[in-house]
Write a structure and sequence with these properties.
The protein has about 350 residues and is α+β, with helices and mostly antiparallel strands. A hairpin with a 5-residue loop joins strand 7 and strand 8. Helix 1 packs antiparallel against helix 4 and helix 4 packs across helix 8. Belongs to the peptidase M42 family.
Amino acid sequence: MIELLEKLSNADSIASNENEVRNIIKNELSEYSKTFTYDGLGSLMIKKSASIEKAPTIMFAAHMDEVGFMIRNISDIGFVHLMPVGGVEDRAKINQLVRATSQTGKKFYGVMNIIRNPSGEIEDIYADFGFDNREEFKNSGLQIGDMVVFGSSFRRLEKTKNVTGKAMDNRAGDFALIKAMHGLFNKNLNVNVIAAFTSSEEVGTRGARLCSNIVKPDLFFAVDVAKHPELDRGFTNHRKLGYGPMIEFYDKTMIPNRKLINYLRKLAKRNKVPYQEDMFKGGGTDAATAHLENSGVASAVIGFPIKYCHDPYSFANIEDFEYTSNLIQLIAESMDKEKVAEFYNF
Protein backbone atom coordinates (compact mmCIF):
# COMPACT_ATOMS: atom_id res chain seq x y z
CA MET A 1 0.00 0.00 0.00
CA ILE A 2 3.01 2.30 -0.37
CA GLU A 3 1.27 3.98 -3.32
CA LEU A 4 -1.53 5.06 -0.97
CA LEU A 5 0.98 6.65 1.39
CA GLU A 6 2.50 8.48 -1.55
CA LYS A 7 -0.92 9.84 -2.56
CA LEU A 8 -1.64 10.99 0.97
CA SER A 9 1.73 12.68 1.38
CA ASN A 10 1.56 14.46 -1.97
CA ALA A 11 -2.01 15.68 -1.40
CA ASP A 12 -2.42 19.28 -0.20
CA SER A 13 -4.75 19.88 2.76
CA ILE A 14 -4.38 22.57 5.40
CA ALA A 15 -6.98 23.19 8.12
CA SER A 16 -10.51 23.61 6.71
CA ASN A 17 -9.16 22.81 3.21
CA GLU A 18 -8.90 19.03 3.52
CA ASN A 19 -10.79 18.00 0.37
CA GLU A 20 -7.84 16.33 -1.35
CA VAL A 21 -7.02 14.03 1.57
CA ARG A 22 -10.67 13.42 2.46
CA ASN A 23 -11.42 12.28 -1.10
CA ILE A 24 -8.48 9.85 -1.07
CA ILE A 25 -9.70 8.34 2.21
CA LYS A 26 -13.30 8.05 0.98
CA ASN A 27 -12.14 6.28 -2.16
CA GLU A 28 -9.77 3.98 -0.27
CA LEU A 29 -12.38 2.98 2.34
CA SER A 30 -15.30 2.81 -0.09
CA GLU A 31 -16.43 -0.50 1.43
CA TYR A 32 -17.63 1.58 4.39
CA SER A 33 -19.29 4.25 2.22
CA LYS A 34 -22.79 3.71 3.64
CA THR A 35 -21.48 4.67 7.09
CA PHE A 36 -19.80 7.96 6.12
CA THR A 37 -20.83 10.94 8.27
CA TYR A 38 -19.32 14.38 8.80
CA ASP A 39 -19.08 17.14 11.34
CA GLY A 40 -19.63 20.75 10.33
CA LEU A 41 -15.92 21.32 9.65
CA GLY A 42 -15.56 18.41 7.25
CA SER A 43 -14.17 15.70 9.53
CA LEU A 44 -15.01 12.28 8.09
CA MET A 45 -16.32 9.57 10.42
CA ILE A 46 -16.44 5.93 9.30
CA LYS A 47 -18.16 3.20 11.31
CA LYS A 48 -17.44 -0.49 11.73
CA SER A 49 -20.43 -1.81 13.67
CA ALA A 50 -20.21 -4.34 16.47
CA SER A 51 -21.58 -7.84 15.99
CA ILE A 52 -23.66 -7.51 19.16
CA GLU A 53 -26.32 -5.09 20.33
CA LYS A 54 -25.77 -2.33 22.88
CA ALA A 55 -22.01 -2.42 22.38
CA PRO A 56 -19.71 0.37 23.56
CA THR A 57 -18.07 2.64 20.99
CA ILE A 58 -14.37 3.37 20.60
CA MET A 59 -13.01 6.11 18.38
CA PHE A 60 -9.64 6.34 16.65
CA ALA A 61 -8.87 9.83 15.33
CA ALA A 62 -6.21 10.82 12.80
CA HIS A 63 -6.21 14.39 11.53
CA MET A 64 -6.17 15.19 7.81
CA ASP A 65 -4.68 18.68 7.88
CA GLU A 66 -1.02 19.61 7.56
CA VAL A 67 0.86 22.76 8.52
CA GLY A 68 1.09 25.28 5.73
CA PHE A 69 0.12 28.80 4.74
CA MET A 70 -2.58 31.01 3.26
CA ILE A 71 -2.09 33.87 0.85
CA ARG A 72 -2.54 37.03 2.90
CA ASN A 73 -1.30 39.96 0.78
CA ILE A 74 -0.28 40.61 -2.83
CA SER A 75 2.48 43.11 -3.51
CA ASP A 76 2.79 45.47 -6.49
CA ILE A 77 5.64 43.32 -7.86
CA GLY A 78 3.50 40.17 -7.86
CA PHE A 79 4.88 38.52 -4.73
CA VAL A 80 2.47 37.02 -2.20
CA HIS A 81 2.87 37.39 1.55
CA LEU A 82 1.81 34.43 3.63
CA MET A 83 0.04 33.64 6.89
CA PRO A 84 1.26 30.43 8.60
CA VAL A 85 -1.47 27.92 9.38
CA GLY A 86 -0.13 25.71 12.16
CA GLY A 87 3.34 25.54 13.68
CA VAL A 88 5.66 25.55 10.68
CA GLU A 89 9.31 25.25 11.74
CA ASP A 90 11.23 28.52 11.25
CA ARG A 91 14.01 26.68 9.43
CA ALA A 92 11.39 25.46 6.94
CA LYS A 93 10.45 28.97 5.84
CA ILE A 94 13.75 29.82 4.16
CA ASN A 95 14.24 29.34 0.39
CA GLN A 96 11.73 26.49 0.08
CA LEU A 97 9.80 25.21 -2.91
CA VAL A 98 6.07 25.74 -2.28
CA ARG A 99 2.84 24.90 -4.07
CA ALA A 100 -0.31 27.03 -4.13
CA THR A 101 -3.77 25.75 -5.04
CA SER A 102 -6.39 27.99 -6.62
CA GLN A 103 -10.12 27.67 -5.93
CA THR A 104 -10.45 25.69 -9.18
CA GLY A 105 -7.73 23.25 -8.10
CA LYS A 106 -4.95 24.57 -10.35
CA LYS A 107 -1.44 24.21 -8.90
CA PHE A 108 1.29 26.86 -8.95
CA TYR A 109 4.90 26.32 -7.86
CA GLY A 110 7.06 29.04 -6.38
CA VAL A 111 9.84 29.78 -3.90
CA MET A 112 9.18 30.93 -0.32
CA ASN A 113 11.51 33.10 1.71
CA ILE A 114 11.55 35.36 4.77
CA ILE A 115 12.18 38.92 5.89
CA ARG A 116 13.88 39.37 9.26
CA ASN A 117 13.54 42.32 11.62
CA PRO A 118 16.62 44.12 13.08
CA SER A 119 16.69 41.55 15.93
CA GLY A 120 16.98 38.69 13.48
CA GLU A 121 13.46 37.37 14.08
CA ILE A 122 11.20 36.40 11.19
CA GLU A 123 8.98 39.39 10.46
CA ASP A 124 7.29 38.30 7.24
CA ILE A 125 7.07 35.35 4.86
CA TYR A 126 6.70 35.79 1.13
CA ALA A 127 6.57 33.61 -1.98
CA ASP A 128 7.55 34.29 -5.57
CA PHE A 129 5.44 32.41 -8.13
CA GLY A 130 7.07 34.14 -11.09
CA PHE A 131 4.57 36.96 -11.53
CA ASP A 132 5.99 40.42 -12.28
CA ASN A 133 3.09 42.48 -10.95
CA ARG A 134 -0.22 42.38 -9.13
CA GLU A 135 -2.24 42.15 -12.36
CA GLU A 136 -0.39 39.01 -13.49
CA PHE A 137 -1.10 37.42 -10.12
CA LYS A 138 -4.82 38.22 -10.30
CA ASN A 139 -5.07 36.89 -13.85
CA SER A 140 -3.58 33.56 -12.76
CA GLY A 141 -6.67 32.62 -10.76
CA LEU A 142 -4.97 32.71 -7.37
CA GLN A 143 -6.66 34.76 -4.65
CA ILE A 144 -6.16 35.93 -1.10
CA GLY A 145 -6.98 33.03 1.20
CA ASP A 146 -5.73 30.30 -1.14
CA MET A 147 -3.75 27.39 0.30
CA VAL A 148 0.05 27.16 0.07
CA VAL A 149 2.03 24.09 1.16
CA PHE A 150 5.53 22.75 0.71
CA GLY A 151 6.18 21.62 -2.85
CA SER A 152 7.77 18.34 -1.77
CA SER A 153 7.35 14.97 -3.50
CA PHE A 154 7.20 11.59 -1.77
CA ARG A 155 10.21 9.28 -2.09
CA ARG A 156 11.37 5.87 -0.89
CA LEU A 157 14.87 6.19 0.56
CA GLU A 158 17.28 3.79 -1.09
CA LYS A 159 18.66 0.82 0.90
CA THR A 160 16.54 1.68 3.95
CA LYS A 161 13.05 1.01 5.27
CA ASN A 162 12.39 4.75 5.42
CA VAL A 163 10.26 6.98 3.25
CA THR A 164 10.24 10.77 3.04
CA GLY A 165 7.70 13.35 2.00
CA LYS A 166 5.73 16.29 3.27
CA ALA A 167 2.83 16.18 5.73
CA MET A 168 3.76 12.94 7.49
CA ASP A 169 2.07 14.80 10.33
CA ASN A 170 -0.42 13.34 10.03
CA ARG A 171 -0.65 11.36 6.80
CA ALA A 172 1.32 8.68 8.66
CA GLY A 173 -1.55 8.40 11.13
CA ASP A 174 -4.14 8.52 8.35
CA PHE A 175 -2.38 5.72 6.51
CA ALA A 176 -2.10 3.48 9.59
CA LEU A 177 -5.78 4.00 10.45
CA ILE A 178 -6.90 3.30 6.87
CA LYS A 179 -4.89 0.10 6.89
CA ALA A 180 -6.40 -0.94 10.22
CA MET A 181 -9.94 -0.31 8.99
CA HIS A 182 -9.29 -2.53 5.99
CA GLY A 183 -8.18 -5.27 8.38
CA LEU A 184 -11.27 -4.89 10.58
CA PHE A 185 -13.83 -4.93 7.79
CA ASN A 186 -14.70 -8.64 7.98
CA LYS A 187 -14.04 -9.08 11.71
CA ASN A 188 -16.70 -9.73 14.37
CA LEU A 189 -16.22 -7.15 17.10
CA ASN A 190 -17.73 -6.56 20.53
CA VAL A 191 -17.44 -2.79 20.12
CA ASN A 192 -18.40 -0.24 17.51
CA VAL A 193 -15.32 1.32 15.94
CA ILE A 194 -15.35 4.86 14.60
CA ALA A 195 -12.42 5.97 12.46
CA ALA A 196 -12.50 9.77 12.60
CA PHE A 197 -10.35 11.58 10.05
CA THR A 198 -10.48 15.00 11.61
CA SER A 199 -10.28 18.57 10.39
CA SER A 200 -8.23 21.43 11.81
CA GLU A 201 -6.05 19.67 14.35
CA GLU A 202 -3.08 21.89 13.62
CA VAL A 203 -4.99 25.02 14.64
CA GLY A 204 -6.50 23.81 17.92
CA THR A 205 -7.69 20.18 17.68
CA ARG A 206 -11.08 21.41 16.55
CA GLY A 207 -12.46 18.50 14.54
CA ALA A 208 -11.82 15.91 17.23
CA ARG A 209 -13.84 17.90 19.73
CA LEU A 210 -16.82 17.93 17.39
CA CYS A 211 -16.48 14.24 16.49
CA SER A 212 -16.31 13.27 20.14
CA ASN A 213 -19.35 15.41 20.89
CA ILE A 214 -21.33 13.87 18.02
CA VAL A 215 -20.40 10.20 18.51
CA LYS A 216 -19.96 10.23 22.31
CA PRO A 217 -17.37 7.43 22.30
CA ASP A 218 -16.65 5.36 25.41
CA LEU A 219 -12.92 5.35 24.58
CA PHE A 220 -10.89 7.73 22.45
CA PHE A 221 -7.52 7.14 20.79
CA ALA A 222 -5.57 9.83 18.95
CA VAL A 223 -3.41 8.39 16.18
CA ASP A 224 -0.79 11.07 15.60
CA VAL A 225 2.97 11.62 15.31
CA ALA A 226 5.84 12.89 17.39
CA LYS A 227 9.09 14.46 16.27
CA HIS A 228 12.21 12.33 16.58
CA PRO A 229 15.14 14.41 17.90
CA GLU A 230 17.32 13.48 14.95
CA LEU A 231 20.71 14.09 16.61
CA ASP A 232 19.83 12.11 19.75
CA ARG A 233 20.26 8.34 19.53
CA GLY A 234 20.65 7.89 23.30
CA PHE A 235 18.50 6.67 26.16
CA THR A 236 16.34 9.82 26.26
CA ASN A 237 15.07 9.31 22.71
CA HIS A 238 11.81 7.32 22.87
CA ARG A 239 10.81 8.18 19.31
CA LYS A 240 13.15 6.03 17.24
CA LEU A 241 12.12 5.06 13.74
CA GLY A 242 11.45 1.35 13.30
CA TYR A 243 10.87 0.66 17.00
CA GLY A 244 7.09 0.85 16.89
CA PRO A 245 4.50 3.45 17.93
CA MET A 246 4.74 5.42 21.13
CA ILE A 247 2.31 5.10 24.00
CA GLU A 248 2.15 8.59 25.45
CA PHE A 249 2.08 9.15 29.21
CA TYR A 250 1.81 12.94 29.26
CA ASP A 251 1.45 16.10 27.25
CA LYS A 252 0.39 19.58 28.29
CA THR A 253 -3.16 19.04 27.01
CA MET A 254 -3.93 15.56 28.38
CA ILE A 255 -2.73 12.98 30.88
CA PRO A 256 -4.24 9.68 29.71
CA ASN A 257 -6.28 7.19 31.71
CA ARG A 258 -3.63 5.10 33.49
CA LYS A 259 -5.63 1.87 33.43
CA LEU A 260 -6.01 2.26 29.70
CA ILE A 261 -2.28 2.87 29.28
CA ASN A 262 -1.43 -0.24 31.28
CA TYR A 263 -3.89 -2.23 29.19
CA LEU A 264 -2.21 -1.09 25.97
CA ARG A 265 1.21 -2.08 27.26
CA LYS A 266 0.05 -5.56 28.18
CA LEU A 267 -1.82 -5.98 24.90
CA ALA A 268 1.22 -5.00 22.83
CA LYS A 269 3.59 -7.22 24.82
CA ARG A 270 1.25 -10.22 24.65
CA ASN A 271 0.99 -9.89 20.88
CA LYS A 272 4.67 -9.05 20.35
CA VAL A 273 3.99 -5.61 18.86
CA PRO A 274 7.00 -3.34 19.44
CA TYR A 275 6.17 -0.05 21.12
CA GLN A 276 7.89 2.88 22.82
CA GLU A 277 6.92 4.96 25.85
CA ASP A 278 7.16 8.72 25.83
CA MET A 279 6.01 12.06 27.23
CA PHE A 280 5.67 15.38 25.39
CA LYS A 281 7.05 18.56 26.93
CA GLY A 282 4.72 20.60 24.74
CA GLY A 283 2.15 20.21 22.03
CA GLY A 284 -0.91 18.03 22.02
CA THR A 285 -3.12 15.83 19.87
CA ASP A 286 -6.78 15.38 19.00
CA ALA A 287 -7.20 13.83 22.44
CA ALA A 288 -6.72 17.30 23.97
CA THR A 289 -10.27 18.41 23.29
CA ALA A 290 -11.95 15.06 22.66
CA HIS A 291 -11.25 13.67 26.13
CA LEU A 292 -13.08 16.59 27.77
CA GLU A 293 -16.39 15.99 25.98
CA ASN A 294 -19.34 13.98 27.31
CA SER A 295 -18.37 14.25 30.99
CA GLY A 296 -14.87 12.99 30.19
CA VAL A 297 -13.68 10.19 27.91
CA ALA A 298 -10.95 7.70 28.82
CA SER A 299 -8.32 8.42 26.19
CA ALA A 300 -4.82 7.57 25.01
CA VAL A 301 -2.40 8.58 22.28
CA ILE A 302 -0.76 6.21 19.82
CA GLY A 303 2.18 8.21 18.50
CA PHE A 304 3.92 7.54 15.21
CA PRO A 305 7.65 8.44 15.29
CA ILE A 306 8.89 10.66 12.46
CA LYS A 307 11.92 12.85 11.85
CA TYR A 308 11.73 16.51 10.78
CA CYS A 309 8.12 17.15 11.75
CA HIS A 310 6.53 20.33 10.29
CA ASP A 311 9.34 20.56 7.74
CA PRO A 312 9.27 20.23 3.92
CA TYR A 313 10.33 16.58 4.22
CA SER A 314 9.75 14.16 7.09
CA PHE A 315 11.13 10.65 7.50
CA ALA A 316 8.94 7.70 8.48
CA ASN A 317 9.68 3.98 8.75
CA ILE A 318 7.66 1.40 6.82
CA GLU A 319 7.72 -1.12 9.67
CA ASP A 320 6.20 1.45 12.04
CA PHE A 321 3.15 1.66 9.79
CA GLU A 322 2.66 -2.09 10.20
CA TYR A 323 3.18 -1.99 13.97
CA THR A 324 0.79 0.94 14.43
CA SER A 325 -1.91 -0.57 12.24
CA ASN A 326 -1.60 -3.89 14.08
CA LEU A 327 -1.95 -2.20 17.46
CA ILE A 328 -5.10 -0.36 16.36
CA GLN A 329 -6.64 -3.62 15.18
CA LEU A 330 -5.68 -5.43 18.39
CA ILE A 331 -7.32 -2.75 20.50
CA ALA A 332 -10.54 -3.00 18.51
CA GLU A 333 -10.59 -6.80 18.53
CA SER A 334 -9.82 -7.14 22.25
CA MET A 335 -12.29 -4.61 23.66
CA ASP A 336 -15.69 -5.43 25.10
CA LYS A 337 -18.23 -3.90 27.45
CA GLU A 338 -16.59 -5.24 30.62
CA LYS A 339 -13.11 -4.01 29.72
CA VAL A 340 -14.40 -0.55 28.84
CA ALA A 341 -16.30 -0.33 32.13
CA GLU A 342 -13.16 -1.20 34.09
CA PHE A 343 -11.38 1.92 32.83
CA TYR A 344 -14.05 3.98 34.59
CA ASN A 345 -13.93 2.00 37.83
CA PHE A 346 -12.46 4.65 40.10
